[in-house]
Write a structure and sequence with these properties.
Elements: H1 2-15, E1 19-21, E2 37-41, H2 46-51, H3 84-87, H4 93-110, E3 119-123, H5 135-138, E4 160-161, E5 167-171, H6 177-188, H7 200-204, E6 220-229, E7 232-244, E8 255-262, H8 273-285, E9 291-298, E10 302-310, H9 314-322, H10 332-345, E11 352-359, H11 370-381, E12 386-392, H12 399-408, E13 412-416, H13 419-428, H14 430-434, E14 436-447, E15 452-458, E16 478-481, E17 485-494, E18 525-534, E19 542-549, H15 560-576, H16 586-594, H17 601-617
Parallel strand pairs: 8-9, 8-11, 11-12, 12-13
Antiparallel strand pairs: 1-3, 2-3, 4-15, 5-14, 6-7, 7-17, 9-10, 14-16, 14-18, 15-17, 18-19
Length: 618
């Protein structure tokens, strides 16, 4: 039977004009020329599967984990096909021939059982510049620039006239994935990142700042500073900073964690599953007797590989992590459901209950639509189980889905590209990553029309809220973890300066009068800052409100943190290439940032990233 299937595969390959070889490589060599395109179909020998009596993915171990019925096949599921538009490139007849060949091959493969064998099909005579994109079959993307990574399209926030829109409302964001992703593009792949990968607020929030911590019952303190705008001297720049109360690791509440780990075939890469294991081990090292860990994995199916285990029993948890191997397609939806089930069954009232999802990319089996996944996660979050998302690797990384998923599931989103980043997120900022101190945090600014003609929010484009959402406790918003810093900049056009916004002439309203200026507008206040938030276990929000005056400081008089953060914002704006940011340049950013690095190694690294971008933009 095995021989006949090989013959059939050889025949299919012959139809495609390909030369088949049986090998051990799981995916094409990244350095291969366009004339040598490799297609990899995940599989391993059936005999080896039988010998792995407790398959690497299905590890009952010492804790008698209960695998689901499909768990034994997780590592052996054939990876799904990619859409035709993503599977090939070329033009004219080349596309038609390639598509027909690929579809014919896939139809043959779909009729076969999931045999445990890898087949590498070389295509040595492809036309120049033509490379069929079959990474979806193997569960692999092609890397930056090859269309595998998915980012949401974001339009830069425009200037808005205060006369027309005096309120600005948005959800806070503590994610840092965009910064690490950009670093990976610039440093590792020597490419400028796609504009969709650049979320300015995540670049700014990657760093910590010396903000005042709360001294009252509130879980965070608000810090506001104003100075001249460094990229437009006629404008003002207002920085809003929020600092969450800090909680030492020893003072953390009891923690119920579920590691939800992607072990699909595409994770078989040194920057993926091995790095994931290292990162989770770093986190386990920080846990104690009041903490619990369960491990759920998913590929073609999902299963429990370690029941909830005391954080003191590190050897058992480490052993479970060591035994994980990659193989199969990606049924993330099923994994999320099982992980939430495990977290709910071991729920700690008054403690931290969190699922940590670690994956390299898209879900392509089971529940795959972003809307369905987000709806499921948002519903589960109502039970008090929050979500952290950790992204790994490049090529088929669905950044847009991960960001939305974490945002709707009361969570945070980081991208782990190095062991140093894993230490930052899972060790140095462990309390912030795991312990939520406030949820559904919203900011609303009301600008004084006698002081401000126009404004624009720098970043947070996909975190904008309707003004009415601010007082609606049913509307979801962002979460703040212990010790987290959140920063937002507004570029403000003073009332004395010509506004860049041209207000369209409309007829006077028949049934309403225009807004009247109130006595409060005659004060020295530039704006009013309002913040709404909920305690992690409550459904009713609290309000913080404070009037803000402009100190009139020049940019050089601003604090070092203000100047550094402004430099990071300028860098993000430059990468986004907005028309209104044309005056920003890398030389100015380098000079500005270098004066405010100090002994912070992360700020020092940022200078290297700026230099890498400068080299690529020459």
């Amino acid at each position: 039977m095995r021989v006949s299937r090989i013959v059939l595969l050889l025949a299919v390959a012959a139809v495609c004009g390909c030369r088949p070889q049986v090998g051990q490589n799981e995916r094409p060599d990244a350095t291969a020329t366009p004339s040598s395109t490799a297609v990899v179909l995940d599989a391993e020998r059936e005999e080896k599967t039988a010998e792995r009596d407790s398959a690497p993915i299905s590890m009952a171990g010492k804790k008698d984990a209960k695998p689901v019925s499909e768990m034994s096949t997780v590592a052996n599921q054939p990876a799904p096909t990619a859409p035709a538009a993503d599977r090939y490139r070329g033009s004219g007849r080349e596309k038609e021939v390639a598509k027909s060949q690929i579809d014919a091959l896939q139809m043959q493969l779909k009729t076969m059982p999931a045999e445990n064998r890898r087949l590498v099909i070389q295509q040595p005579n492809a036309a120049p510049g033509f490379a069929p994109q079959l990474e979806g079959i193997a569960g692999h993307g092609a890397g930056p620039g090859e269309g595998g990574d998915k980012f949401a399209h974001v339009e830069n926030n425009p200037f808005r006239a205060v006369a027309d829109e005096p309120l600005s409302t948005f959800s806070i964001d503590v994610d840092t994935a965009s910064y690490a992703k950009i670093r990976s593009y610039l440093i590792d792949h020597h490419q400028l990142p796609p504009q969709g990968a650049v979320r300015v607020e995540e670049l700014i929030n990657y760093f910590t700042y010396d903000y005042e911590t709360p001294t009252d019952q509130n879980p965070f303190a608000a810090n506001v500073e104003a100075a001249a705008c460094p990229w437009n001297s006629e404008h003002r720049l207002v920085r809003i900073g929020i600092k969450g109360k800090e909680i030492a690791n020893a003072d953390r509440p009891a923690t119920n964690l579920v590691f939800l780990l992607d072990v699909s075939g595409s994770m078989n890469n040194s920057r993926k599953l091995p790095l994931l294991k290292q990162g989770m081990k770093l986190l386990v090292d920080q846990l104690g007797e009041n903490d619990k860990v369960a491990i759920v994995v998913y590929a073609g199916a999902a299963g429990m590989v370690l029941n909830s285990t005391s954080g003191d029993d590190k050897s058992t948890i480490m052993e479970a992590l060591d035994r994980l191997q990659a193989g199969g397609s990606t049924n993330g939806g099923q994994g999320i459901a099982l992980a939430y089930q495990a977290a709910t069954e071991n729920f700690i009232k008054g403690g931290v209950n969190r699922v940590i999802l670690c994956t390299d990319g898209d879900f392509n089996v089971g529940v795959t639509s972003t809307s369905d996944l987000v709806t499921m996660a948002a519903e589960k979050a109502k039970s008090g189980v929050f979500l952290s998302v950790m992204g790994f690797g490049t090529g088929n990384h669905n950044d847009a889905m991960m960001e939305e998923l974490s945002g709707k599931a009361n969570g945070n989103y980081a991208f782990i590209d190095t062991i140093t980043e894993a230490k930052k997120v899972l060790v140095e900022q462990m309390s912030g990553t795991l312990t939520t101190i406030a949820k559904d945090v919203k900011i609303q600014i009301e600008f004084n029309p006698t002081k401000v003609a126009a404004y624009r929010l720098v970043g947070y484009e996909n975190r904008l809220l309707a003004n009415a959402d601010f007082n609606d406790d049913k509307k979801d918003a962002g979460e703040i973890g212990a010790g987290h810093c959140v920063t937002a900049f507004y570029e403000i056009v003073p009332a004395s300066v010509e506004s860049p916004v041209t207000t369209a002439k409309v007829d006077d309203l028949k049934y309403q009068s225009t807004r009247d200026i109130t006595p409060a507008a005659d004060s020295d206040e530039l704006l009013t800052l309002k913040i709404r938030y909920k305690q992690p276990d409550e459904d009713e929000s609290s309000l913080i409100s404070v009037g803000v005056k402009d100190s009139g400081n020049r940019f050089a008089q601003a604090s070092g943190d203000f100047q550094f953060a402004a430099g990071v914002a300028m860098f993000g704006m430059l990468l986004r290439e907005g028309d209104q940011d044309a005056k920003v340049n890398l030389d100015e950013i380098t000079e500005l940032v270098s004066n405010n690095v100090g002994d912070d190694s992360y700020r020092g690294e940022f200078l290297k990233i700026v230099q890498a971008a400068k080299t690529l933009k020459k």
